[in-house]
Amino acid sequence: MNIRDAEAGDVPAITEIYARSVVEETASFELEPPVETEMLSRMESLLDAGYPYLVAAENDGVLGYAYAGPYRPRPAYRHTVENTVYVAKEAQRRGVGKALMLKLIDRCCESGFRQMIGVIGGAHHQASIALHETLGFEKAGQLKQVGHKHGRWLDVVLMQRQL
Fold first, then answer.
1. How does pLDDT run across 81-102, given as a tens digit for each residue?
2. H-helix or E-strand containing 62?
3. Are 5 and 54 in contact (CB under 8 A)?
4. Which of 38, 99, 122, 137 sits 20 to 30 Å CA-CA off 128?
5. Which tens digits make up the pLDDT trace of 112-134?
6. Is 115 within 8 Å of 163 (Cβ atoms)?
């Protein structure tokens, strides 16, 4: 497995990984999966702003992706990033998410960011919570029933790590 900077050619695989999550899971609170052009636009916006966007690749396929972006838009938050990580269903439980997150944390440290926030959609996502804890994140709070998806109300778990 190779962790590298994402490229435009990775967007079809990234879009597919994300679409499955949007349709089948609750990690994302989007209700309709975005198309490739939208995903490319999102990637380019983050890269143009100086944020890292990574993929885990193996045998010319994308196993997962991770990126950091602004936590909130106000200027005082400029030193804090929110992390995002998604892994293809067939690549889960192979250490892909952890490898992506370790590299993402390193890149954010190198860029001078001070805090990283994980916003986990659904308190039932114990694997994501455990991954963040393993990487030094602490639970910073839980917002109760702030999202509604797949016919149920969902909490959001906030996790924080100093960089």
1. 999 999 999 999 999 999 999 9
2. strand 61-70
3. yes
4. 38
5. 999 999 999 988 889 999 999 99
6. yes
